[in-house]
Amino acid sequence: MSIFRLGDQKPPEPRRVTDDVVERFAHVYEVEPEKMQTFPQQDLPAWDTHRIVAARWDHLSWMHDHFADDVLVAGLPSETMPEEEEAG
Amino acid sequence: MSVAFKSAVDDAVVDELRAIIGDDDRVLPNVSSRASRTRVPAPFPVHRWSEFMPDVAVLPVSAEEVSEVVKLANRLRIPVVPRAGGTGLSDGAVPLRGGICVDVKLMNKIHEIDLDDRTVTVGPGINMLKLNEELRPHGVFYPDDPASYPCSLVGGRIGTGGWSLLGSRFGHTRDLVISMQVVLPTGEIAEIGDGGGRKLRKSSTGLTLKQLFTGHQGTLGITTEATLELVPRPELEFAAFFAFDDYMKAHRTTGALTRSGLATLAGVVLFDEWKLRYLRRDDEAYIPQPPWVQAVVAVAMYGTRAEVEPASKVVMELGRADGGKYLGDEISEGDWASRHDRYATPLHGRTKDGQVVPMSWHCEDAALNYSVLPKVREEWHAIVERYIERYGIFDDWGMFCYTNGAYKPWADYLVEIDVGIWEQKLDDENWAGWVACKREIAEVALKHGGSITACHGATREGDAELVPTEMGSAWPVVKRIKRALDPNNIMNPGKQMLDEAYK
Fold it and tell me: For chain A, which has fewer Cβ within 10 Å, the N-terminal or C-terminal residue?
């Protein structure tokens, strides 16, 4: 059973990824806040961020299912980011 | 000659429409029903929407109702604009002169699934995703797959002459429609096929009319029923994405893949440097990619396991033969799935100083041959850069080149430059600027022996005025056909410069 604790819903402090992007959760990227001065970013609780990410994956899986019985992949690691594949 | 040039809808006409339709809930003269049929998703100045409202919308459920509505319009010289999903990117379903919007969404029935002769017969208001959900238990598939797959409708695909992501394998909309029933501009109902039989794919009798009634943008009639191709549902999908440090390596690899002879090849997509710059800035899949990634080639295949498994190994060899690096399973699988549904993506862009602002997606397309892709890419980006500098409300989101030849992927491409537009800032001056930009982009396509549109249609300002130039010596023939079929210019008047047929 999971217990909802309000304090757990505050996103962690961001880590800079590039000049344009920060990261609060693994593989979830956000625009650098300094570049959102005209339209400030709204605060999202952690659960909402996780919900959006999960919904996106659900959607992509659902789309795949419309086009073929099975999806084949090469089964090879990324050759552009090998260190990340190994870490993952 | 008297032709429809402005709205003539009054209470008496609405009463006649109610008598034809026989259900007041399907005759809609109220403002909200009209306003929601005023535009398409492509950016357009909000303050000008009211200029493009139909005077009344009707929702017929049969060809006979459509026929009677069109006969009424023809008698009274009232413009008629057919509308299906309204998801087109070039204003095909936007009324330029008011009139009657014939919305076919309620004509969404599956009339027949024929598993022996491999056809499905449907109304024009059905959506491909829904259709395929019904077909799935039968082990068959209707493989028309636009980027609007979850929301566009069969009738709009036929009217626009749509392009499919899987077109290299299965053909595009015009290849997948076997025959159709069309209400002509004078109200007659005609069965249009490749000859006589409704389910025949090839005939040599008489004139081949089917192509004339796909891609006419509602200017020659309204499709009220279509008999479509069924293919075996694919057992397997395979997608692979390759990164390159140089655009020309990616261009050569695209050529090699398309010339591979692999019959299951459904599509190859080339992403240019500007696209990668945009994706690395604003797309979660590409943000962490290293700076040397300057171009990407994506490949997708569909078919039986016996075909796709060995072919996937050939793709992996070809994709990496000229310096390509595999982007990994997750991005290959996930990014390809997202291509079926580009309309679900919330969009933002950047101002010149890098600030994030809400922007809408304007996708400017052309059909071009393989050999000119590198040059056109340079010229198109230079044009957009000038307009970004001058107006400050545009953002260059890069270019894609998709294989465009049905069953013959090797020579021509649907080429798109995606431009973000800060739609809230579209006043008259900024809109005029964008139209000029569009026109310059289209002129480059013509200069390089291309077409100004591969799939969206030349029905938006900036493209439309170039239709006679592109058609060249065929333009007088086009005008004669339009005038012969639509003597009063009631069908979607004002589109594609076809008013010239009546001068």
Answer: N
pLDDT value at A40 more than 80:
yes
The tally of domains found in chain B comes to 3
Residues B421 and B443 reside in one and the same domain = yes
Mean pLDDT across B140-147: 96
Condensed to tens digits (0 to 9), the pLDDT of residues B399-427 reads: 999 999 999 999 999 999 999 999 999 99
Q: How is residue B288 written in tokens? A: 């962490």
What ipTM was assigned to the predicted interfaces of this complex? 0.87
Domain region containing B413: 236-463
Nearest to B235 among A37, A66, A69 (CB): A69
Confidence of residue B65 (pLDDT cuts 50, 70, 90): very high
pLDDT for B383 beyond 80: yes
CA–CA dist A44, A6 (Å, integer): 13
Question: pLDDT for B204-222, tens place per residue?
Answer: 998 989 999 999 999 999 9
Contact B357 A64 (CB under 8 A): no
Find the helix or strand (DSSP H, E) in which B381 lies. helix B373-391
CA B114 – CA B110 distance, rounded (Å): 11
Kindly provide the b/e burial profile for residues B195-208, where b requires at least 16 CB atoms within 10 angstroms of the residue's own CB. Answer: beebbbeeeeeeee
Residue B364 CA to residue B450 CA, distance in Å, equals 14
Which of A21, A29, A63, A64 to mutate against chain B (most B CBs within 10 Å)?
Answer: A63
> Which residues from chain A sit within 8 angstroms of residue B348, using beta carbons?
31
Mutate to test the interface with B, among A27, A42, A66 (most CBs of B within 10 A): A66
CB pair distance less than 8 Å for B327 and A79: yes
Closest partner residue to A70 (CB to CB) among B235, B350, B356 is B235
Q: Quick one: B212 and B283 in the same domain?
A: no
3-state SS assignment for residue B302: strand
Question: Which CATH number do you get for residue B39?
Answer: 3.30.43.10
Q: Stretch B86-91: mean pLDDT, rounded?
A: 91
Both tokens of B462, joined, read 């900036």
- The residue among A57 and B220 whose pLDDT is bigger is B220
Is A74 close to B240, i.e. CB distance below 8 A? Answer: yes
Name every chain A residue with its beta carbon within 8 A of the beta carbon of B289.
80-81
Are the beta carbons of A68 and B237 separated by less than 8 Å? yes
Residue pLDDT, tens place only, B321-353: 999 999 999 999 988 888 888 776 668 899 999
Give rounded-to-5 percent helix, strand, coil for chain A. 40, 15, 45
Is B340–A39 a contact, with Cβ atoms under 8 angstroms apart?
A: no
DSSP state for residue B182 in the 8-state scheme: E
Q: Is B473 within the bounds of a domain? A: no
pLDDT digits (tens, 9 = 90+) for B156-206: 999 999 999 999 999 999 999 999 999 999 999 999 998 888 999 999 998
Average pLDDT of chain B to the nearest whole number: 95
| Cα–Cα distance for residue pair B153/B166, rounded to 1 Å | 17
Closest partner CB to B355 (pick from A27, A35, A60)? A35
Chain B contact present for A55, CB below 8 A: no
- A44 has a chain B CB within 8 A of its CB: no
Q: What is the mean pLDDT of residues A1-21?
A: 79
B158 shares its domain with B92:
no
CB contact under 8 A, A67 and B331: no
